[in-house]
């Protein structure tokens, strides 16, 4: 496009042709090579080594939803990065957390954010939460070729549904299969442990504060049992990223807030390494 | 055999310009003003859905007078240009200057190509900076020329008269309510100098607000917030500010 714009000076015809409100549709017609899914893949043998992100958790509470992620990226048995960000705002009312191949996932998030913003600007209205979730599904499906080579991206999508007035969570598999999760969900290598923790701690009358504490508890348990998930790093002051989406929109907890939660949990784990006990029947 | 009429190039261009100007004059004028915290767009628009102002990118807004389908087409072209550029490079690499140049080339090429009908539109592309000195406002008339404006600008049929009214009264560092009041006064003056009333529900107002915490600075002002600002503009000017969450039309 750049060369094209410069040579004639005016917007290329594709820019002024009425069409879809989707940025991805525009790209696939105008510059298909810019889309991650349209890339030519060289033949490879074995699994490609690239940094992987691990555990993402989400939990709903009356009035909203919390989405959080740990900060570790691993490449085989090496910690590739200690402060990676895996939870991003998708738009005003939704957020996406990513587990899987970090490079591809971050690119996918960037394109997803742009897709939602582009639609909003062109149409003058936001997509429904359902529509956003479906759009993400399409993007994961377009990555299937790379997923087959071991470069999978598995996001967790959470948002506040302004039409239904509640927080909702969608999880995905590598083929783009989408399913709505009730109450809580987790994805990534530590997800089984996180899910176990959430299962025991979840109640449907959590406050926002309890919900944010719950996700950090779950991440702590994931880090406890999964070597690819990082726990709160007190020495380096790296704490999980916790985001809250309510009818007021997306908010990421400040470093003070998330360190406060993480430190109080750490404190209690010094006494009780396995964390809070659920009441017996 | 009939001989084709000879039309001199000067005459042909003058005719095209005349045609475009007449088309633009049929629509209502709109104004874009700098105020202390950003840039405000004000226009009379009976439609709730068909906007004259819109967001192009983080700090860049768009305003247009003239034929709706033509400027809507240019607006979407601009959104695609900005989004593609931001995706290819970085969000900071999308600038109002770049966008204004592309629009100028597009309008200019259409205007001077004999095969195409000239566009009956006049555009404003504005970018809000970190400080008032960094604000940029470009006016793009139908022929693809480009004018770098400061303080205030009006486009549309009655633009010259409104511009001179604004030029005399606009000051740097006005509050939003003051700027809005001035804009409404300017728009509600008729050609013969009499004032008429523009009710709040016929006003379309949007701002590029540099104090907004979000990356995207464009915001429509509607409903109660607009009513409050219009009231504040009449009396004191300090009442408004920072009610981001309330009554804000999500674009």
Q: What attributes characterize this protein structure?
A:
heterodimer; A: 281 residues; alpha+beta; 8-stranded antiparallel sheet; 5-stranded antiparallel sheet; 9 helices; 13 strands; 38% helix; globular; disordered N terminus; B: 251 residues; 6-stranded antiparallel sheet; 6 helices; 11 strands; disordered C terminus; Proteasome subunit alpha (chain B); Proteasome_alpha (chain B); proteasome (chain B); Proteasome_sua/b (chain B)
Structure description:
Chain A is of the alpha+beta class and 281 residues long. Chain A has helices at 2-8, 13-16, 23-30, 102-123, 129-142, 144-148, 191-201, 208-225, 255-271; strands spanning 52-53, 56-61, 64-69, 73-75, 78-81, 87-91, 94-101, 153-161, 166-172, 178-181, 184-187, 241-246, 249-252. In chain B, helix 4 packs antiparallel against helix 5 and helix 5 (176-187) packs across helix 6. Residues 236-251 of chain B have low confidence and may be disordered. Chain B has helices spanning 9-26, 68-88, 96-112, 159-169, 176-187, 223-234, and strands at 30-35, 38-44, 53-57, 60-66, 121-127, 136-140, 147-149, 152-155, 203-209, 218-221, 248-249. Chain B is an alpha+beta fold and 251 residues long. In chain B, the strands form 2 sheets. Chain B has a 6-stranded antiparallel sheet. Chains A and B meet through helix 1, helix 3 and helix 4 of A and strand 3, helix 2 and helix 3 of B.
H/E series of chain B: HEEEEHHEEEEHHEEHE
Number of strands of chain B: 11
Give me the Rg of chain B, rounded. Answer: 19 Å
Computed over alpha carbons, the radius of gyration of chain A is 20 Å
Low-confidence stretches of chain B: 236-251
Q: Largest interface here, residues on each chain?
A: A-B, 28 and 29 residues
Question: β content of chain B, as a range?
Answer: 15-25%
Structural shape of chain A: globular
Number of β-strand runs of chain A: 13
Average of pLDDT of chain B? 89
The low-confidence parts of chain A are 1-7
Number of H/I helices of chain B: 6
Largest beta sheet of chain A, briefly?
A: 8 strands, antiparallel
Strand order of the largest sheet of chain B: 8-1-2-9-10-11
């Amino acid at each position: 496009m750049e060369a094209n714009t410069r040579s004639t000076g005016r917007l290329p015809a594709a820019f002024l042709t009425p069409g879809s409100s989707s940025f991805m549709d525009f790209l696939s017609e105008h510059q298909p090579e810019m889309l991650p899914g349209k890339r030519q893949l060289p033949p490879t043998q074995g699994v490609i080594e690239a940094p992987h992100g691990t555990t993402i958790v989400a939990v709903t509470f009356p009035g909203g939803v919390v989405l959080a992620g740990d900060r570790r990226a691993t490449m085989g048995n090496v910690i590739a990065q200690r402060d990676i960000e895996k939870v991003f705002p998708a738009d005003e009312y939704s957020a996406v957390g990513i587990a899987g191949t970090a490079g591809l996932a971050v690119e996918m998030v960037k394109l997803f954010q742009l897709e939602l913003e582009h639609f909003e600007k062109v149409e003058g209205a936001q997509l429904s939460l359902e529509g956003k979730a479906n759009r993400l599904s399409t993007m994961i499906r377009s990555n299937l070729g790379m997923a087959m080579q071991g470069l999978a991206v598995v996001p967790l999508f959470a948002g506040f549904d302004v039409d239904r007035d509640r927080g909702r969570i969608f999880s995905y598999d590598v083929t783009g299969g989408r399913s709505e999760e009730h109450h809580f969900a987790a994805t990534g290598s530590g997800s089984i442990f996180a899910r176990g923790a959430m299962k025991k701690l979840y109640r449907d009358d959590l406050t926002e504060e309890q919900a944010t504490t719950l996700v950090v508890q779950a991440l702590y348990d994931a880090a406890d049992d999964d070597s690819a998930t990082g726990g709160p790093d007190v020495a380096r002051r790296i704490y999980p990223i916790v985001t809250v989406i309510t009818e007021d929109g997306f908010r990421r907890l400040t470093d003070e807030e998330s360190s406060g939660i993480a430190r109080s949990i750490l404190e209690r784990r010094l006494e009780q390494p396995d964390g809070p006990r659920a009441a017996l029947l | 055999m009939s001989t084709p009429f000879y039309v001199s190039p000067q005459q042909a261009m003058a005719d095209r310009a005349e045609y475009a100007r007449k088309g633009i004059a049929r629509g209502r004028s709109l104004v874009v003003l700098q105020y202390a915290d950003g840039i405000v767009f004000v226009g009379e628009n009976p439609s709730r859905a068909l906007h004259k102002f819109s967001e192009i990118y983080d700090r860049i807004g768009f305003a247009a007078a003239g034929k709706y389908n033509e400027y809507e087409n240019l607006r979407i072209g601009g959104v695609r240009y900005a989004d593609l550029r931001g995706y290819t490079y970085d969000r900071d690499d999308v600038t109002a200057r770049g966008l204004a140049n592309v629009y100028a080339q597009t309008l200019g090429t259409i205007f001077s190509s004999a095969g195409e009908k000239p566009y009956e539109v006049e555009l404003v592309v504005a970018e809000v900076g970190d400080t008032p000195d960094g604000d940029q406002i470009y006016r793009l008339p139908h022929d693809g020329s480009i004018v770098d404006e400061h303080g205030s600008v009006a486009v549309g049929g009655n633009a010259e008269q409104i511009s001179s009214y604004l030029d005399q009264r606009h000051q740097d560092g006005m509050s939003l309510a003051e700027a809005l009041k001035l804009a409404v006064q300017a728009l509600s003056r008729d050609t013969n100098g009499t004032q008429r009333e523009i009710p709040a529900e016929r006003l379309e107002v949007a701002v590029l607000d540099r104090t907004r915490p979000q990356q995207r600075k464009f915001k429509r002002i509607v409903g109660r917030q607009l009513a409050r600002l219009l009231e504040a503009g009449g009396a004191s000017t300090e009442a408004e500010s920072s009610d981001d969450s309330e009554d804000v039309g999500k674009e």
